[in-house]
Predict the structure.
Amino acid sequence: MNSEWNGSSARVARLTKSGAWQGKQTRMLHSDQFSDRSSAFRIAAVCVAIAGAWLSAAARGEVRVQDVSRLQGLHTNTLTGFGLVVGLKSTGDGGQYANTVRALQQLHRRYEQPVLDPREMKANSNVAMVTVEVTIPQHGARIGERLDVVVSCIGPAKSLEGGQLLTTPLQDSMLMTPDILALGRGRIEIPDPKAPTRGVIKGGATLESDFVYNFIEDQHITLILDESHANFPMAQMVARAIEHELTSEENGGVLERDADGRIVVADNVAVATGPNQVRVRIPSFEMARPAAFMARVLETPIFTMPKQQARVVINRMTKDIAFTGVVTISPTVLQVRGLGTVSVGGGDEKSGGGGLLGVDSEKTGGVAFEQLLQTLSQIKASPEQMIAAVEQLHRAGTLHAQLVYAE
């Protein structure tokens, strides 16, 4: 179960409903399976070449800065609006939903077709009022680009199948500006027949404004580490890798020089300012082409990975247990419903010693978390029982790792 990854380790345990482990099997091909020895030698030579290429790639650093972080400023935006869907086959809101009736009256007045009596709209079941949403990509978008639209029923409509969204103005979802930023319209498709009140219009929104994000502030860019990698050791390693890449002359560093060719001593190019932020200074001569500089920063290999934090992740939905780093358990005894008493460390691993299930009794200073999972799996513990045991160890303070829940 141990796996080495650029100086760190990661282990994942997936449980079936019966509590059994699911592992990978490796099948070895021997030379006697080939028609002749020369074929085997050729295959071996190819494997050696591939292994050599892989090792050289590993030596260069497999993990890049962009694999563990993103540029500050990369984010999505959502545009929203309220619209009317027409052309439904008697599956709309009908005359009982007052909001739809009022919206229809306003639509008629706008096009100089006033409704003299609101009761005229009561029998209209081919119209539905919907929310309209458009997501702007994290890299931004330009005027005239077409994006997908998501429409959802607000009232009692039963289905949007076959409907057509009338032209709907879309604004910033936070209503920070009153401007119309996009227009949505088009024929609705139902991606999930089990949810007919939610539909999609492919390319149904046309942008009426540019969405251009700024990544540079005071001649600096900021890298935001992913949540799973955010910690002080990782932030420091990212800063060191960028500093080495940009200032080392053997890497073609971007050292600044004066008119006489002398190196200008300046502050560090990259500085870790927190567990999830690294601030990178852009040299003056790179400001004319900042995109190339940012690309180089993101492509920078992290030559030394910090030791992974001891962490246990429990997924409540799938009943999976995953852990990273070195997770150990101090000797303890716990009671698990349906299993009885479980002794972790100090017990008799074979006999159990009066109902106790010993785990790695020789290591009185603590046992590996992996051994506990293996032992519980061998006695056919269910995923729920294994999760309960882990939670008890964490509450008792004998599980030396951070416990995280995922949905």
Q: What stands out?
A: The two ends are 24 Å apart (CA to CA). Residues 1-61, 347-357 have pLDDT under 50 and may be disordered. The chain has three domains: 77-207, 220-298, 311-406.
